[in-house]
Design a protein that fits this description.
Length: 355
Amino acid sequence: MTKHKNQWHFHFLDIFLLFAPVSIIFYFLHVGALASFLVTAASLVGIAHLMAESTGIIARKVSNTISALINATFGNAIELFIAIFSLRAGLVNLVKASITGSIILNVLLLIGFSMIAGGLKYKEQKFNKESAGLSSTMLIVAVVGLGMPSIYNLSVGSPTRPMSLVVSIILGVVYLLSLIYTLVTHKHLFVVERQAPEEVHDRWPESAAITVLLIATILATFESSFLVKTIEPLISQSGFTEAFMGLVFVALLTNIPEISTAMAFARKNNMTLSLEIGMSSALQIALFVVPVLVLISPLFIGGGLDLVFTPFELVAVVVTGMIANYIGSDGICHWVEGAQLIAVYLLIATAFYFL
């Protein structure tokens, strides 16, 4: 049984929290868009790490079901906040690109870096094929769901908001069914790999973790608002498109803590958990964040958010789903596969830069 001890320790991502007060000062002093964006983005990296640490501590103290709900709620909270403020600002294309960007980044970049981190220490690494197979199949389902409104719009050209609503509800139900499968009916397939063999040193007790999580969530709300207000002038000054900003910058800044964590587990020869971090985060975006955004979007924009993506976004997500299905096929990985995944991500990012 895993032992949990409270022990404060420093993490290099804690440094990014120092940018939070600076970003607030920059906001009220109306500092330039680029400087404000960089400082606010850096603060969100630290806040995301703080939320991940607190969520992890709380999740270890409760049942698997509640743990899954906590992770689903707070795991991608900052992406949700940024998307909501972006919708209020009318940056719909940014929101859609950040959705596809987060899915692509978690599957290609996060898992790619993890394979390289582990592969530099171990010649080959094994992982749970059942867990990876379920996640990759779920991602294919998500890709089909996200792609149908786009294909329908290209074929018929009719409004797709009602179709997007139905698709979102179906994806949400599928996500709930997957939680029941992994945590209730077939939890024996996953419990062995998810148990850590060593002591876990929590940074704070549970009560303090709850307080930290609440404060970090409130701070993340304000910082997300500050970030979105810098994006519009930054787009006009830099020449970057909404799609590139969403797919690369917004998706990356909120997932740096997860990339760091996944790489650390890979270095400990636990590629199963590294893959789960990447796949689960991608699935939470597709099956949890997307339905929530579609359902609540009429509160922020007229007509609500639909799931009509550009052909480039659609192709990128489809390719990512196919690669995810291939990753989980043999249960073995090495550093070259990681390099290949990163190369595909860079190719997709490059294409969006030149759009």
